[in-house]
Design goal:
single chain, two-stranded antiparallel sheet, about 70 residues, mainly alpha
Amino acid sequence: MITVNLDIMLAKRKMSMTELSEKVGITMANLSILKNGKAKAIRFSTLDQICRVLDCQPGDLLEFQAVEF
């Protein structure tokens, strides 16, 4: 399972969702879907822009957690 740690990075950078949305050029609705882990996919170009704005690596935003069946 992939967990999105966008809220953690936003807190570390003291940035709001609105500010990130404006700087990345992604709608608040789509950003919220990503933040809440409801996204099925993310474009590399979007991930690139988020990482540039937050000055982080993709691994800072995305985390793999093994799920036992």
